[in-house]
């Protein structure tokens, strides 16, 4: 009975950690890392499985750290509490701080432990592959921390800083960084390859703001949705979608991707249909399908691009 109880307790802790860190969205970081590593495999015939695995661990820990440090600072800044109290607003944080499920001390301890794993992974990779790995990881870490932390607070300024930060953090840095880890050099194709997945992930984060933009406005968090208003932000969201999928065509033209990667364009269809159901003004819950569709399109498209590169490398 004791063993069963201990197993149950451990399972509960893991479930709480998975919710607190929002581990379900981890693929948006692991996919660009896989793309960068496969770029080295296809273009340079360089691929080390153990370096790839360590890159996945480090970048994954960095992403979970980013999720939790954002929740921590949103709690300090009052954004999460505003979302909890605002009528009709959908809160997207774990609720562990606002509901008192975890103490601030415990939440911070787990958060910084993840940072430690990411930092150690980055140091090991830099020793093996070269000092620029620290630059890639360091820039990602700074963006993750200052996304909502003072004095920079990218996510609160509403001038497109947060969108650029996401494009860098989930596109350019992980793809180019993973490519460098494998090859110890840079290639313009890695930059091009980062654009489809980076722009699609930026779209996820942008559409995420529609769920609680009224609460963000109340808390002084000036996302582009707050600054532009719902209607204008929806227009931008659609154009961001077009740009993301157009970048796949650019990658094929420049031979950063094989021609059959164009199959990834099909993943836009279900998401495009969701946009067609939205009006100029919508309640928060109406944006849940848009958010879900954005995540599915990003993951599906990313997996197709990975498979396309893998096939090209093996042929």
Automatic annotation (TrEMBL):
<feature type="transmembrane region" description="Helical">
    <location>
        <begin position="106"/>
        <end position="125"/>
    </location>
</feature>
<protein>
    <submittedName>
        <fullName>1,4-dihydroxy-2-naphthoate octaprenyltransferase</fullName>
    </submittedName>
</protein>
<dbReference type="InterPro" id="IPR044878">
    <property type="entry name" value="UbiA_sf"/>
</dbReference>
<feature type="transmembrane region" description="Helical">
    <location>
        <begin position="160"/>
        <end position="181"/>
    </location>
</feature>
<keyword id="KW-0472">Membrane</keyword>
<feature type="transmembrane region" description="Helical">
    <location>
        <begin position="297"/>
        <end position="314"/>
    </location>
</feature>
<comment type="pathway">
    <text>Quinol/quinone metabolism; menaquinone biosynthesis.</text>
</comment>
<keyword id="KW-0812">Transmembrane</keyword>
<keyword id="KW-1133">Transmembrane helix</keyword>
<feature type="transmembrane region" description="Helical">
    <location>
        <begin position="21"/>
        <end position="43"/>
    </location>
</feature>
<dbReference type="GO" id="GO:0042371">
    <property type="term" value="P:vitamin K biosynthetic process"/>
</dbReference>
<feature type="transmembrane region" description="Helical">
    <location>
        <begin position="233"/>
        <end position="253"/>
    </location>
</feature>
<feature type="transmembrane region" description="Helical">
    <location>
        <begin position="193"/>
        <end position="212"/>
    </location>
</feature>
<feature type="transmembrane region" description="Helical">
    <location>
        <begin position="131"/>
        <end position="148"/>
    </location>
</feature>
<dbReference type="GO" id="GO:0009234">
    <property type="term" value="P:menaquinone biosynthetic process"/>
</dbReference>
<feature type="transmembrane region" description="Helical">
    <location>
        <begin position="49"/>
        <end position="66"/>
    </location>
</feature>
<dbReference type="InterPro" id="IPR000537">
    <property type="entry name" value="UbiA_prenyltransferase"/>
</dbReference>
<dbReference type="Pfam" id="PF01040">
    <property type="entry name" value="UbiA"/>
</dbReference>
<dbReference type="InterPro" id="IPR026046">
    <property type="entry name" value="UBIAD1"/>
</dbReference>
<dbReference type="GO" id="GO:0004659">
    <property type="term" value="F:prenyltransferase activity"/>
</dbReference>
<dbReference type="GO" id="GO:0016020">
    <property type="term" value="C:membrane"/>
</dbReference>
<keyword id="KW-0808">Transferase</keyword>
<feature type="transmembrane region" description="Helical">
    <location>
        <begin position="259"/>
        <end position="276"/>
    </location>
</feature>
<keyword id="KW-0474">Menaquinone biosynthesis</keyword>
């Amino acid at each position: 009975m004791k063993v069963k109880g201990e197993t149950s307790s451990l399972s509960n802790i893991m479930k709480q950690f998975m919710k607190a860190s929002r581990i379900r969205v981890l693929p948006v970081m692991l996919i660009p890392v896989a793309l960068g590593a496969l770029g080295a495999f296809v273009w340079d015939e360089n691929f080390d499985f153990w370096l790839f695995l360590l890159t996945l661990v480090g970048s994954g820990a960095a992403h979970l750290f980013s999720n939790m440090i954002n929740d921590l600072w949103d709690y300090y800044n009052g954004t999460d509490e505003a979302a909890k109290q605002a009528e009709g607003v959908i809160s997207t944080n774990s609720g562990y701080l606002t509901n008192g499920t975890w103490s601030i001390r415990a939440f911070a301890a787990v958060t910084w432990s993840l940072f430690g794993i990411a930092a150690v992974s980055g140091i090991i990779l830099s020793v093996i592959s070269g000092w620029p790995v620290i630059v890639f990881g360091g820039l990602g870490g700074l963006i993750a921390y200052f996304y909502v932390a003072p004095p920079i607070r990218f996510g609160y300024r509403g001038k497109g800083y947060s969108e650029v930060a996401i494009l860098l953090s989930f596109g350019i840095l992980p793809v180019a960084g993973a490519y460098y880890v494998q090859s110890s050099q840079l290639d313009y194709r890695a930059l091009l390859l980062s654009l489809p997945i980076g722009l699609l992930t930026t779209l996820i984060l942008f559409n995420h703001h529609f769920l609680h933009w009224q609460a963000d406005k109340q808390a002084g968090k000036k996302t582009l949705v707050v600054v532009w208003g719902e209607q204008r932000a929806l227009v931008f969201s659609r154009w961001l979608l077009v740009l993301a999928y157009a970048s796949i065509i650019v990658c094929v033209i420049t031979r950063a991707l094989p021609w059959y990667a164009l199959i990834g364009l099909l993943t836009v269809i279900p998401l495009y249909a969701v946009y067609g159901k939205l009006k100029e003004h919508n309640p928060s819950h109406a944006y849940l399908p848009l958010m879900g569709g954005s995540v599915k399109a990003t993951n599906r498209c990313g997996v197709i691009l990975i498979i396309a590169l893998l096939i090209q490398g093996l042929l």
